């Protein structure tokens, strides 16, 4: 089942990052659950890719 998870060429890293930023800015999602929420909304994208996009975020919402 997981062998084809990264075969979603229609979803770019920019789209994933934009989705994460929208969620953070909404104030309804904490950074600690953002990766899990993104995995649920982009089921065909590998977890490693989602984590890479999360790490690339430069946001005041992620600063402690």
Arithmetic mean pLDDT: 86
Shape: globular
How many strand units? 0
Largest sheet: number of strands, sense, barrel closure: none
Spans where pLDDT lies below 50 across 5 or more residues: none
Helicity range of the residues? 40-55%
Query: Counting H and I runs of at least 4 residues, what is the number of helices?
Result: 3
The assigned structural class equals mainly alpha
Distance between the termini: 36 Å
Task: Indicate the radius of gyration in whole angstroms.
Answer: 12 Å
Please trace the helix and strand order, writing H or E for each element. Answer: HHH
Strand content: under 5%
Task: Explain what you see.
The chain has 64 residues and is mainly alpha-helical. It contains 3 helices and no strands. It has helices at residues 13-26, 31-41, 47-56. Helix 1 crosses helix 2, helix 1 packs across helix 3 and helix 2 crosses helix 3 (47-56).
Descriptive key words:
mainly alpha; 64 residues; 3 helices; single chain; 55% helix
Summarize this, please?
The protein is mostly helical. It contains three helices and no strands.
Secondary structure layout plus pairing:
Layout: H1 13-26, H2 31-41, H3 47-56
């Amino acid at each position: 089942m997981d062998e084809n998870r990264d075969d979603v060429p229609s979803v770019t890293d920019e789209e994933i990052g934009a989705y994460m930023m929208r969620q953070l800015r909404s104030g309804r999602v904490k950074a600690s659950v953002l990766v899990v929420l993104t995995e649920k909304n982009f089921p065909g994208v590998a977890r490693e890719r989602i984590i890479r996009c999360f790490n690339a975020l430069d946001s005041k919402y992620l600063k402690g």
